[in-house]
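Lab notebook, bench 4. We co-purified these components, and the gel suggests they stay together. Before we commit to crystallization screens, I want a quick structural picture of the whole thing.
Request: model the full complex, all chains together.
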Amino acid sequence: MSTPQPPTHQQAAPAPNWQAAPGTSYVSPIPITRTHLGHALASEWTKIKSVRSTMWTLGVFLLLVVGVGLLVAVNTTTEDYTEVPYTIPAFFGLILGQICLITLGVLVVSSEYGTGMIRTTFTASPQRYRVLTAKLIIFFVVAFAVSAFAIGLVGLFTSSLHDGESGTPWGRSVLMGALYVSLLGVLALAVGSMLRHSAGAITTMLGVVLVPAILPAFLMLSDSMRTIGEKMMEYNAPNALARIFELDTDSGTGGSQLALLAGVTAAAIAGAYALLEKRDV
Amino acid sequence: MIEAVGLTKRYGDKTAVYNLSFQVRPGAVTGFLGPNGSGKSTTMRMILGLDDPTAGQVTIGGHPYRKLPNAPRQVGALLDAKAVHGGRHARNHLLCLAQLSGIPARRVDEVLGVVGLQDVAKRRSKGFSLGMGQRLGIAAALLGDPQVLLFDEPVNGLDPEGILWVRNLMKSLAAEGRTVFVSSHLMSEMALTADHLIVIGRGQLLADMSVRDFISHNSADFARVRTPDTEPQQREKLTASLTEAGGQVLPEQDGALRVMGLPLPRISDLAHDADVRLWELSPHQASLEEAYMRMTQGAVDYRSTVDQRAGFLQELPPGAVPPPQMPVPGQGQPGWYAPPPPQQGGHPFAMPQGQPPAGPYGAPAVPGAGEPNPYAQPSPAPAQPAPAAAPDLTKPEDAR
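Here is the predicted assembly.
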């Protein structure tokens, strides 16, 4: 049915003409708009704020980072902050809190596969890459805003509690700390999109975060494995956060660790896009 | 307008859909029938671009689904009522779908009203009953006010009022010039709703024709004639007379006669001429269910067997009589539902004409026999439909 033709009398075929003469085919009165990423972003924003898992994971994250942070802050003295930023109390909460962001990142995509919602979503938007892009952006913005807010709050509280005379500026650690845990969450989202299974993806991500932190203790035992162990020690997630919060300033401030995470995340996102277009839903 | 050409889908070594070609046209409700596992849902998923076909293609209005610029505004679909995130309430579920295709938010409230869910709009869909879930799915399909609508088992779990509503909804959507493609297992519902039928079995096309043609090609209309029970010789006399006039007469279990090939007035005239009184002369139209059962009996994958309960039966005391086992219609009897074909040796359905009657699946069904299913054997010409041979005509079809 390319061009509509006016009904003619010569169409008196014996078989009923199902091909629908013009006028019989339905035209909706609702104006049709050309869809773009903005629509997908609005949709994903509605999605992320309308499920309880978001409230739970972000609530627990805030509780951990701010709660533990404040507890640490009141138990430290002003002298503790001469060489470290005021945001350091947030570090201890972030070590645990990053797991909340990983869980949320996985759930943003895998809960759709678990419930079957993904078929509804991809029917409503056959441009699958657009949906994944919107998910990545919305999740990153939410995770970054919440974690920067939490770290910043802890920093403000600590600085007001301890005279605000620290020699180290702490704005950088707010941004880099928030960026690091948000990227971990984005990596989790990409892994969730590839594995399509909540428990599997969360377990994988826990492995990514915890194994490099635990394994070096065993790798260091043998000489041949020592260099691998040292690299793992240097680049594992808790250690990267420790450097960002300048617990150990001698060996950098977490820039290379952040770059490595960004690289891994970019690779995972590329893999997620490639699989997304290829696989059946 | 949905058009499938040579559609094939394989999952590993299992072929779910093979070489399926059909058209679904606007302005009519097209029913999509087939036994469980025959590939209906796979076909629907391929239409919606969720699964990529292994071979062939399916287009909507000339474009593959994934190439449509604003797909939900052109195609609405209910695939699976439970394909929602249960933690999200109904309105937000529809809202996020509406935003995805740039549909104004007030349309969400409209469709919630259309499906009757406005009172539970703010309730999480986890707590919905199956019927409410179906209504939510139908709302999602209607959201974009699309020209093409696909419904997979839309009346599943609906109450009688809901079934009636869906039936009228389908018809009114088609009357507006939309393309409506509905799959269902409820034959009585299909007979009332659909104008056209596409029947598949084992992933292959079995029939593509109007409902009326489907029934008349797959099942014969007949007249039931009853002579006075007290005078059996009258029955013999009438049988001879009707057979002589060219009718085909089959005795029924309760003593009535089943007459095919003669119109009712002619039967009455013949009886009058033969001086035979009639206690009953009634027309019987074959139902869609009979026609469907007959067509698909060779293509059913999942068939129940008789429940033997062997090994659980206690040994009966000597002299005791085992309780009589009542047969369940259809259980373990593949040919149970088969009504006679229109005429002996005729084509049970007239899809492509000129097929030889000796089809690969056409063996007459033997009730209860454990013979290998001829349909299951590899066929050199797979797309060939199944012109069945004449079945066992002495079987009492109405015993159920």
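Residues 286-300+330-373+383-395 of chain B form one domain. Worth comparing against the SEC data before the next meeting. The first strand of chain B starts at residue 2 and ends at 11.
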